[in-house]
C-alpha cells in the first residue's frame, strides 16, 4: 500500500471524505473479519492495483468502522512468539447490502467474491440445494427487491453483459459448483435470465480468525500508534487454493502465495474434514472450555485419533503433500495460546457445518465397512450441545429444539435428531452401526461417564 494511504489512516480515521474508488474490480459480499484477514490481504500483496468494494450483508457496523477510515484497517497477527500489525488498503469502498445487485451489474467489476458463512446461502446443508421453503427466499421469489444473497446476486447478474467470475470463499463442499447450482435454481424459479458469461471456480480458504476483542484494539494501537476501529485478529498461518478458471481476469494472487490449480477438491476435502471437522469436535466435546487452546490441551488425543482413524483414510492426498505434517500443524495451530479463539464461536450453526465436516467422513467410513468411532463421538457431542445449550445459535434451532423436547433417554435423542434430514439426509438414520455408536457416546456424555 502506498505511503499516502497509510498516512490517511494515521490522519485518522477522522472525517476525510472517501476518495472516489477508481480501481474497484472486485465486489466482495460479506465483508466480515475473515475476508479482511484473508482474501483482502492476498489482494493487497498481489500488488497489481485491484481494489475491493466490500458489501456487508447483515450488520452495518463495518460500514461505520471502515467508512470514516477510507476502508483502511489493520490485521493483527498473534503467534506464540508475539504480535505484529499491518495496515491493509485493498478495500476501497464499504457499502450495505442494498447496493449488491447494482454493484454486481457494474461492468467494471470482474470478480464477485463471497464469504457469507454457511447459513448465508440458505441451502439445504445435506444436499446443497436451495431451500425454497426458506421464508426470505420465498419472499424474494415473489418479486420484491431481493434481500437474500442469492436473490441479490441473481438479480445483479441478470442485469449485466460483461463476463464475470463468482468466487465462493466459504467452507462448503465443492463451493463453486454449489453456488452455481443455487444461483441457477433461484434464477429459474424467479424467471430471471442470466446471459453474461460466468465462471464459478472452487476455492479452499484457510486462516483462523477469532472475533476481535477490546484487548486486540489496544494491542493494535500500541503497535501502530493509531486507533483503528476495524482491527481484525488472526494467526500467522494463511492458505488459499483456487481453481484457476476465471471469466475476466484476476489479481496475481499466486504472486501473493495462493495456489492456483486445476482441481481444488482434494485440498478442500482435507481442510474441511481435518481442520474444520476437528474444530467442531473441539467446540462440542470441549464446550466446557472457553478457548480452543484449552480444549486441545485436554482433548488433543481424541482429535488426533479422529484425524488418523476416521478422516485420514477418506482423503486423497494431493501429490507431494505431507499429510502427517499437515495434521501435526493443525494441532499446533489450535494450541496457539495467543489467539484466544472461543469454542462458542465455532459451535454456532452446527446444522450447517456438520454435513461437510463430519458426516461425509461418517458416510465414507461406513461404506468402507469401518466404524467411524471418533467422528460419531463428535456428532454425539453436538447432539448433547443441542440438548443442553442455553441458547442454540443455529438457523435450524427451532426444529432441533422441538425434536429433542420429545425425547429424554439418549437413544431417543439420537433417533429424533437422526430424523432431521436437512442435516443427516435420508440415509444416515438407516445405519445401525452409526446409530449404535451415537447411542453409546451420548449415553456416556449424558451420564458424565465419558472420558471426554
Ligand atoms: C471454524 C472456521 O468457526 C468455525 O466454524 O471452524 O471458521 C475456521 O476457523 C476456518 O475455517 C479456518 O480456516
TrEMBL record:
UniProt keyword Oxidoreductase, yes or no: yes
Residues of the Mannitol dehydrogenase N-terminal domain: 25-254
Superkingdom of this protein's organism: Bacteria
Record has Acyltransferase as a keyword: no
UniProt keywords, alphabetically: Oxidoreductase
Catalysed transformations (reactions): D-mannitol 1-phosphate + NAD(+) = beta-D-fructose 6-phosphate + NADH + H(+)
Mannitol dehydrogenase C-terminal domain boundaries: 263-442
UniProt xrefs under Pfam families: Mannitol_dh (PF01232), Mannitol_dh_C (PF08125)
Name the record gives this protein: Mannitol dehydrogenase family protein
